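Retry 2 of 3 after timeout on previous attempt. Resubmitting structure tokens to design endpoint.
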């Protein structure tokens, strides 16, 4: 109920006036709070939805799956691996059951270059374990993919890693299930079986340290 105000008329009559001001204030505050709550609820739902989308991005074979053969064309890198530039082969088959890192990328940036350099260094440090790695560059155009592979190799200056273009150059080998929305997919395997998988929708999201941490799982 609102405020009760009494008054006395000129004739001595006493009356009561009920003010609705307090009722209005309480109703306004209630509606304002409800609008705030709904706004926060919608914002929270949006953030949770965005996080879920990021977390749900899956690309490539999962842990425990076998890595199948697929052909590629060598464009650059690994000058001492007995494979000629322009030669088509199955590097996955060449690497056999050795521990290996198979990188699929649609582009390049400083983070990827850092990752490749790190992998190249690890290959040199883990010769006894016969660690292997190769980088697959994909694009809608085979020629563009080849140019990207050569440029990445020149920038990274990796000595042990071959840079290749998959025969299925647009999205990688079908039996590997590379997500078209993923700019980077990395498969860590040993004994011809996937041990770990790392993928991001954008190269800018690449966490080099987090990706490299998976190496210890295959050595």
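Retry 2 succeeded. Sequence:
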């Amino acid at each position: 109920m609102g405020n009760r105000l009494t008054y006395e008329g000129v004739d001595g009559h006493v009356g009561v006036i009920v003010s609705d001001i307090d009722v209005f204030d309480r109703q306004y505050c209630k509606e304002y709070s409800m609008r705030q709550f709904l706004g926060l609820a919608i914002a929270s739902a949006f953030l949770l939805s965005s996080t879920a989308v990021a977390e749900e991005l899956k690309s490539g074979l999962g842990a425990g799956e076998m890595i199948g053969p697929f052909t590629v064309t060598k464009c650059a890198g690994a000058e001492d691996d007995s494979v000629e530039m322009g030669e088509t082969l199955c590097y996955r088959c060449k690497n056999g059951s050795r521990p290996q890192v198979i990188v699929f990328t649609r582009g390049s940036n400083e983070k990827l270059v850092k990752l490749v350099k790190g992998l190249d260094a690890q290959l040199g440090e883990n010769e006894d374990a016969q660690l292997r790695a190769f980088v697959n560059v994909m694009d809608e155009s085979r020629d563009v993919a080849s140019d990207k592979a050569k440029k990445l190799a020149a920038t990274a200056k990796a000595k042990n890693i071959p840079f290749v273009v998959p025969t299925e150059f647009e999205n990688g080998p079908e039996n590997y299930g590379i997500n078209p929305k993923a700019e980077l997919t990395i498969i860590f395997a040993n004994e011809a079986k996937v041990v770990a998988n790392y993928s991001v929708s954008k190269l800018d999201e690449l966490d080099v340290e987090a990706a490299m941490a998976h190496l210890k799982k295959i050595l």
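Attempt log closed. Residues 21-56 form the longest helix (36 residues).
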